[in-house]
Specification:
Radius of gyration: 17 Å
Helix content: over 70%
CATH class: Mainly Alpha
Shape: elongated
CATH superfamily: Metal-sensitive repressor, helix protomer
Number of domains: 1
Amino acid sequence: MQLPEEVIEDIRKRLHRVGGQIEGIERMLDEGRECRDVVTQISAANKALEQAGFRLVAAGLTYCLANPEEAESDGYPLETVQKMFMKLA
């Protein structure tokens, strides 16, 4: 399935931010920060990563609905993309 360049760029930006959050969490651990603060940042990173996944699946669903025959021949019938969505939910 060919993703639009703007979707790829959006996902890359999101993943870059998540990487920064992970580095920040590691620093917090090194600094001995409070558990609740670390958990809050882990939760935020997890949410950001989920949002990247949902953005990717949303683009896939859009593609499948707009081009059902092409999507199926690419190995992405609607049912497959729905299963991908459920893995994130």
